[in-house]
Amino acid sequence: MNIIVCVKQVVDLEQIRIKPDSRQPVLDGLPVLLGDFDKCALEESVRIKEKLGGKVTAVAAGSAKLKDTIKEALAIGADEAVILTDPAFQGSDTMGSARLLAKAIGRLGEYDLILLGDGSDDNYSGQVPPRLAELLNLPQVGAVREMEVVDNKVRAVRDLEDALEVVEVDLPAVISVTSELNTPRLPPLSAILKAGRKPVHTWGPDDLEVTADSVGTAASTVEVLSNLAPVQDRKEIVFEDAEEGVVEVIKALQREGVLE
Q: How much is the pTM?
């Protein structure tokens, strides 16, 4: 069973701070890591490999920091990784990302299953998996919270918010998963050390047969026009006494109409 897992590098959202004067998030210098949904996809790929045998390849496009970030995927259990870190690939939109991943997967050769997170932690558009499936001419199942590989098929349970749907699809296929699928393992020290010795291939435009003149057709970029935190209108009321403060808070909330 040859499995390809597409992962995305995102900033650590828990460490983002907001400038109070401009309401803009400060993203420079933040650590980067693999998204939670991608870790679930990785975990599931490793479980399938442990049950059926085969190989897991992690594929990712992003900044030069991917050379370090991708080690987490290798520590979880991927056997090798392919990273696309050329400056021409920076800032790709969902269509551009899907095109780059499709070209990389096409170069890898034969595969049985492609796994992705149903969305990314920083954007969660959910567009990359279906776009990738369309480019590769493969069936796709999204919002998967349970799955198993049986007789060259994937039997999956999809979360449709108001219902659960059981579907079955022939392999090869593209499956995008939710965080309910599993709990990703925490790699032991031995796995982290072994990750540094696993093969990591860095591919650029030449490897994907993308020229400088045509790079725009392979990776269109996103221009961020605005990224602001919601306006917060603070009352600037301070209660000094803890016991009396509880009563005063209730009275203040009643005056604001929050409590009846």
A: 0.81
* Nearest partner of 99 among 240, 188, 214, judged by Cα: 214
CATH fold of the domain at 2-218: Rossmann fold (3.40.50)
Structure tokens at 3: 């499995």
pLDDT in tens, 200-231: 999 988 888 876 445 444 455 666 666 666 76
Percentage, residues of the chain above pLDDT 70: 81
C-alpha 215/C-alpha 194 separation (Å) is: 35
Handedness of CA 237, 239, 245, 248 (dihedral sign): negative
Rounded Cα gap, residues 18 and 126, in angstroms: 26
The model's pLDDT over 32-50, given as tens digits with 9 standing for 90+, comes to 788 899 999 999 999 999 9
Report d(CA 48, CA 1) in Å as an integer.
8
Which sequence spans correspond to the domains of the chain? 2-218
Average pLDDT, the chain: 85
